[in-house]
């Protein structure tokens, strides 16, 4: 399978944007790597790389070839995992991108449960916003995404969707904690800690505020959901989260969770997905099946 080695070389050149940089990471000489690429360009009759004083950039032909490269590498990884499965090793790597809301509790629990069945499995998890997750999926950096409100992509195949409401997090002694359900207007005048604009939940809030003509007092915003919880715990601010990321039993002591009225913020989908027409490596396919079952089980539990 020597041809796969060169495909991995091309993939690394594309990722680093540099023949020299890729050669250093691959432990080959830059001249030898460049020669291999030039031989391929001569064979194809097309330039794959635009060589610049500082690095290289893919040509249009190079972009097409890179898609082929990553499809071939994906198929090879899937074949290896199937061979390992036949040998009874159950070994492999699951590559997944997820929203921050899943990173604190839900996804770690599911990884733990999965590894009890398949202890030789390893995981590469990237915690990113929904748009970045889609880019990683398209670039074959990850096999799966688990994100809230992903942007439209024709190549995305949803494996499982789970409607999610936004909930409010606050101290148990906050004046609004006495309410069973909140309206956004209730939060007027109270300091808020909100996630940055790249998150699906923040975008939902801003869209509703714009339509309703409401103005809330944003005292802090951050790209860290851990910091948001800390701000709620130590400053008395209110924050918002999708319900799967705000399980009451996973909250720090003294923080309570209250649903936001769906007249203000209707449910939106949490999506487990993969690229359409892509054959997943066996480890990722098995974990996708596990996650789908866990999400399906939550649909059978009435929302609190």
TrEMBL record:
Q: Where is the HTH lysR-type domain?
A: 1-59
Instruction: Specify one Pfam family.
Output: HTH_1
Q: Which UniProt keywords apply?
A: DNA-binding, Transcription, Transcription regulation
A molecular function GO annotation = DNA binding
InterPro entries membership: HTH-type_LysR_regulators (IPR050950), LysR_HTH_N (IPR000847), LysR_subst-bd (IPR005119), WH-like_DNA-bd_sf (IPR036388), WH_DNA-bd_sf (IPR036390)
Superkingdom: Bacteria
Q: Which residues are the signal sequence here?
A: none
Note the SUPFAM superfamilies from the entry. Answer: Periplasmic binding protein-like II, Winged helix' DNA-binding domain
Which family does this protein fall into? Answer: Belongs to the LysR transcriptional regulatory family.
Looking up PANTHER family in the UniProt record yields: HTH-TYPE TRANSCRIPTIONAL REGULATOR YBHD, NITROGEN ASSIMILATION TRANSCRIPTIONAL ACTIVATOR-RELATED
- This chain belongs to the protein called DNA-binding transcriptional LysR family regulator
From what organism does this protein derive? Xanthobacter flavus
């Amino acid at each position: 399978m020597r041809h796969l080695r060169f495909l991995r070389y091309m993939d690394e050149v594309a990722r680093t944007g540099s023949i020299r940089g890729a050669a250093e990471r691959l432990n080959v000489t830059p001249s030898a790597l460049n020669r291999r690429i030039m031989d391929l360009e001569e064979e194809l009759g097309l330039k794959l790389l635009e060589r610049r004083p500082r690095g290289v950039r893919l040509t249009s032909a190079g972009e097409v070839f890179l898609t082929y490269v990553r499809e071939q590498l994906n198929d090879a990884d899937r074949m290896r995992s199937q061979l390992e499965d036949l040998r009874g090793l159950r070994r492999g790597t699951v590559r997944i991108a997820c929203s921050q809301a899943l990173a604190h509790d839900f996804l770690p629990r599911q990884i733990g449960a999965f590894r009890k069945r398949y202890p030789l499995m390893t995981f590469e998890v990237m915690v990113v916003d929904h748009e970045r997750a889609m880019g990683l999926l398209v670039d074959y950096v990850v096999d799966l995404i688990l994100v809230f409100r992903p942007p439209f992509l024709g190549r995305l195949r949803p494996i499982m969707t789970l409607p999610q409401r936004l909930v409010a997090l606050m101290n148990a002694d906050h004046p609004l904690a006495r309410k069973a359900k909140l309206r956004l207007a209730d939060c007027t005048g109270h300091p808020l800690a909100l996630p940055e604009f790249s998150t699906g939940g923040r975008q939902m809030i801003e869209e509703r505020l714009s339509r309703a003509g409401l103005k809330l007092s944003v005292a802090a915003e951050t790209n860290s959901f851990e910091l948001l919880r800390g701000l709620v715990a130590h400053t008395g601010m209110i924050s918002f989260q999708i319900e799967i990321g705000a399980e009451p039993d996973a909250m720090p002591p003294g923080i309570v969770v209250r649903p936001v009225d769906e007249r203000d913020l209707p449910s939106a989908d949490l999506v487990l997905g993969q690229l359409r027409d892509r054959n997943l490596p066996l480890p990722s396919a098995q974990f996708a099946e596990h996650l789908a079952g866990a999400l399906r089980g939550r649909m059978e539990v009435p929302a609190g």
